Amino acid sequence: MPVIMGTAGHIDHGKTTLVKALTGIDCDRLAEEKKRGITIELGFAFMDLPPDKSGPKRLGIVDVPGHERFVKNMVAGAAGIDFVVLVIAADEGVMPQTREHLEICSLLGVTAGVVALTKIDMVEPDWLMMVQEEVAGYLKGSFLEGAPILPVSAHSGEGLEALRAELAKLAASFQPHRRTDLLRLPVDRVFTMKGYGTVVTGTLVSGKARVGDDIAVYPGGLTTKIRTLQSHGAQVEEVQAGSRTAVNLAGVEVEQIERGDVLARPGSLFPSLSWDVELTCLKSAPRSLKHRKEVHFHHGAREVMARVYMLEGEALEPGQTAICRVRFSEPLAGVFGDRVVARSFSPLRTIAGGRLLSPLAHRVKRFSPAVETLRGLGAGSPESIVLGQLELAGNAGLSFAQLLVATSLESKALEKALALMGGRQEALLIDREARTYISGKVAAALSEGLLAFLAEFHAREPMKPGVARGGLASTWGKRLSPRLFHFVLEGLLRKGAMAAEQELLRLPDHRVSLASDAASLRRKLLDAYDAGGLTPPNLKDVLDPLGVTFKEAAAVFKHLQDEGRLVKVAEGMYFSAAPLAELTGRVVAFFATREDMSPQDFREVSQLSRKYAIPLLEHFDKEKLTVRVGDIRRLRKR
Ligand SMILES: Nc1nc2c(ncn2[C@@H]2O[C@H](COP(=O)(O)OP(=O)(O)OP(=O)(O)O)[C@@H](O)[C@H]2O)c(=O)[nH]1
Ligand SMILES: [Mg+2]
């Protein structure tokens, strides 16, 4: 496995000189750097270490600037390193950027390194001893506590061999854990090379890159191909995770890519305008990090403006850790567990950092239980991380590709976790084609919700046999994808928790039956209208003695109409169906011998007064039995 070391330390303490003494490579390439004698941009070098079991070993080196104005470049360079050489000049000792760089390394998750005490040719031996003690004391409590402190002089060469040996030891002991299946290369430099075109460099943080691979440039999504690859100046066919890499991209202009972009396979990353992160405020921060505070936010080689929202508490006090939402000025493409750094505006300094918990935007509310779900992600088994991420995603669920990013699991491990969880009904595949999963808990809540909706519907509409599928989709299911709606429905039908008759869905034990008082109301209404025959009573005269309003009786009226026992002829005027059918027969018989029927004719046929005759004639027109021509009716031709 390739290993990468970064330099760190205050301006002018001898980082670049030391790298040159170790490797022969001068990292200060820019004219301005030469003129001012300081480092501005990141520099890259490598040294060959004694070969081990796996063959020749090469240590990649990233040299960073110490100037306080270029800390943002330092963060970009330090983002991909495995261990650090903290450079402290023996004549000056620990200085502000010594501290800030060490803090940044620690926020970025660096856990190993050595200290090079440089310029020893410039100090007396007892001064050197004093500084060594001071540095050892300073390192207490940091990840470099107890690390070797090696005195060197790049000028005289003293101590360089011991340092080389120490670096070889560190590199050999280092077994960085890197994913093999998610190609990710945060771009730290972009330039044109004569005869090649656009070249970008960066540390391949995970996955493998091969010549000919399809590549997308995130967050924009521009797609291209790897034309050629180089690692440490040599042309190669394939590059392993952890390698410094130069990629020549096909058909891309320099202007289309910038530092901070990420090369990855098309469709593998999901840029977002907000993340949920676990942030720790540095003990040394001058003040707390307040809710809604604006910061410079660093991820990989990218720096963006961002606002920090506390999902718990009102502010992050120095030394405290909390779950926060960070919103960016432009989308970032990250992966669960990525390290982030936040710097305040004034004073411009590093104040906090931590880990990315959810790279996909969710709507986790402040102080909600979901904050605990987020916290739980920090220290879980593979299955518990998958479960947490699925719960956070809610009804939307997550695709397999999104889960790879949201869990940082290798695809094999993710497949295993999903299979296990499928058996326990914890993760459910709702879309085979898109490979979308939802949490079992979310599915159960939806099923319960649907059953409650049906129960409520039956209570409200006891006379209706059920709800139509389409109606259900546009009411209860209006916020669900058609896939998920279908999934929940089919699940309940399969279990028998819900029944379907043609297009109508209902609870299994729901029957259209009248409640006992509704049944007696039905009986009384029928009696009144049957007794009324062709001269039915007014609605008011029916209802008042029964002590019910029309609103209360409406469902029963509706049911009687559906049953075919009552016919609504006009607003508030109902007829018993049988006498009305008999009258209809008489009207048809009338037309057997006559072509026209006047209102007078109808009154003779029906023996009814105008009060009933007029609405009935209009009813027959509406029913398309008759057609009105001027004042008379004719039988409609069928
Ligand atoms: N005497 C002496 N001078 C040194 C030694 N190492 C570096 N220097 C000098 O210190 C000055 C700064 O060295 P650099 O290597 O540029 O320092 P740096 O840490 O890379 O500086 P920045 O990148 O700008 O932060 C140069 O003039 C070097 O020649 C050393 O071991 N002994
Ligand atoms: Mg330098």
In terms of topology, how is this protein built?
Elements: E1 3-8, H1 15-23, H2 31-36, E2 43-52, E3 55-63, H3 71-78, E4 83-89, H4 96-107, E5 113-118, H5 125-139, E6 149-151, H6 160-173, E7 184-193, E8 197-203, E9 209-210, E10 214-218, E11 222-231, E12 234-236, E13 238-239, E14 244-249, E15 262-264, E16 272-281, E17 289-290, E18 293-299, E19 302-310, E20 315-316, E21 321-332, E22 339-344, E23 349-358, H7 370-377, H8 382-393, E24 398-399, H9 400-407, H10 411-423, E25 427-431, E26 436-439, H11 440-460, E27 467-468, H12 469-474, H13 482-495, E28 499-501, E29 504-506, H14 516-532, H15 539-546, H16 550-563, E30 566-570, E31 573-576, H17 577-593, E32 596-597, H18 599-606, H19 610-622, E33 626-629, E34 632-635
Helix pairs in contact: 3-4, 7-8, 8-10, 11-13, 14-16, 18-19
Verbal overview:
- 35% of the residues lie in helices and 29% in strands.
- It has 638 residues and is α+β, with helices and mostly antiparallel strands.
- β30 and β31 (573-576) form a beta hairpin.
- The mean pLDDT is 92.
- The structure holds guanosine-5'-triphosphate and magnesium ion.
Quickly describe the structure.
The chain has 19 helices and 34 strands. The protein is α+β, with helices and mostly antiparallel strands. The mean pLDDT is 92.
